[in-house]
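Summary for the steering committee. One of the milestones for this cycle was to obtain a three-dimensional model of the protein with adenosine-5'-triphosphate bound, which we needed before selecting residues for the alanine scan. The sequence and ligand used are listed below.
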Amino acid sequence: MRTALRQPTALFAVVVVTVVVVVAIAAPLIAPYAPEAKDFTAPLSGPTAAHPLGTDDLGGDLLSQLIHAARTALLVAVGSVVVAMLIGVPLGLVLGYRGGWYDRIGSRGLDIADALPGLMIGFVVIAILGQGMAVLILAIGLVFCMNFARLTRAITLTERNKGYVESARVSGLNAPRILFSQVLPNLAGPLVVQAAVFLGSAIKVEAALSFLGLGLGDEQPSWGGMLGFATQHTADHPEMALAPGIAICVTVLAFSLLGDTINDTLSGSRMRRTKILGRVLLDGDGARSGSADAALPPASAGTDDGPVGPDTGSVEDSAGEPVLAVRHADIVADRPDGGVVRLVHDASLTVRRGEILGLLGESGSGKSMLAKAILGLLPAGVRLAGGAITLNGTELTDRSPAQLAALRGTGMGVVFQNPQANLSPVHTVGRQLTDVVRAHDATISKEAARSRAADLLDLVGVDDPERRLDQYPYQFSGGMAQRVAIAVALVGEPDLLILDEATSALDVTTQAQVLDLVLDLRDRLGMAVVNITHDLGVAAETCDRVTVLLRGEVVETGDVHTVFDHPRHEYTARLIAAHPGVDDDAPGLGTHDQRKVEHA
Ligand SMILES: Nc1ncnc2c1ncn2[C@@H]1O[C@H](COP(=O)(O)OP(=O)(O)OP(=O)(O)O)[C@@H](O)[C@H]1O
């Protein structure tokens, strides 16, 4: 409202829309006559004291009809926008979320529907179903539903790759729940803007159909119908067209400007929030490691110490049952020409209960692709072309998407890099946690789910959890938001927790606190953890073993002290040398526990 009052056009829009709404609601009270009342003594009277806008050919008062027509316009507009949203939004959500063939076929369907003139769709529906309020609403709703579908699809395509959606998928929420309770609220802003603009457009279409005699019958006054009547009297009463014409133009314009105002206001607050977030993230932009981007040896090359034998994935060679075993995984991206690009080749690794495995390698080495293959979340066009992935001995690669989704919820949890993007911005933290709690236990009461959510916040070290449950992610600092994301990942008590650069966006102090939390949770819950990072300091502080990736291939794997103190592959040696602190320390990387003590 403050924004609206500062801009003249917005003020105009708000005032006009308010007046139209009030007039529509209070029509029976403020109209001097009933809309159907006739004064047979004064047909086509022209403006008089009794009839300021004149009368029609049967003596009906035009001012009263104009006032009651506002009601018709709003009813039809609101009804048709609701119909358009009910059809278009779910359609767009499904197309955008499912992608692939659904999207390709659906989008072509939208293109075809878009190519048909809107009014023609209206004519056809009215011709088939006959005239009447419900038919008019349906006809106009069908005209606009494709626009809502298109908008919703476009935004869903972007939203579905965001961290909070992936977190929700990994947390075990099913597709309808993710779509309607996670993605849809994030579309609220653009949909409200679109709805406001289409309210104006619906009034225009209703007026056009009524003008052509295809709208409502004579007993239901409408601005378009009044305009149509006025055209028959342009010679004797040209003023008759003025009032309904102005009403249509001003109302349509006002709704359009209202849409712009809402858009400006929302993008203004988004910008403000982004600035605040930006400040938080900038404050928290911790020191980054150096890069080993000098010319690199082939992945298979070793140092003078001899060839390097990457982890064969054999699980029998070490103590403890592996929670996760990846054996000879090949991940490829399909090219449009039918060829493939190899992203990860012959990668093997194992992680046991209570163990933290660091997955190291510089940007683009394939760490995230490997993690996504494990989670069954490879992006479209990228696939696992060979190898095996087992979780607690269960093969994941031949599972259906539904089986994988169920496994993801309880077997695996994931925390992504950007703490704020891990959480839906429009839901309270409590809502996000209880949604996942209830997805895992459909019988749990609301109160019990909330209490479990508070316990989880407490577990990850968020103070005053009861109060924090009612706050939104933007009210949390980066470190606290990442603790919440970890809490969400822990709801299903996963055996495997994957941290995909989960501390990279945090400042060093917060990073240390979150890493301590991970170590503590590992000790308390006995989870297996894969910690993906390009920060060797982080790996040194937290990991028991490390696996080093170079251009999609595992070049070295082993105990963290051995690998850091005596790297066998030249690339690992360069990676360590490029990392300030770790290099100097290399023999003195010290013991893992010493570093942890220093760090604490
Ligand atoms: N959607 C995609 N389609 C095709 N190739 C992709 C896609 N996403 C990433 N890649 C490619 O896969 C390779 C591995 O990327 P990945 O994201 O796994 O690297 P990373 O080691 O996790 O790097 P970073 O630390 O920057 O996230 C890169 O060459 C990247 O360009």
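Key point for the committee: DSSP finds 23 helices and ten strands in the chain.
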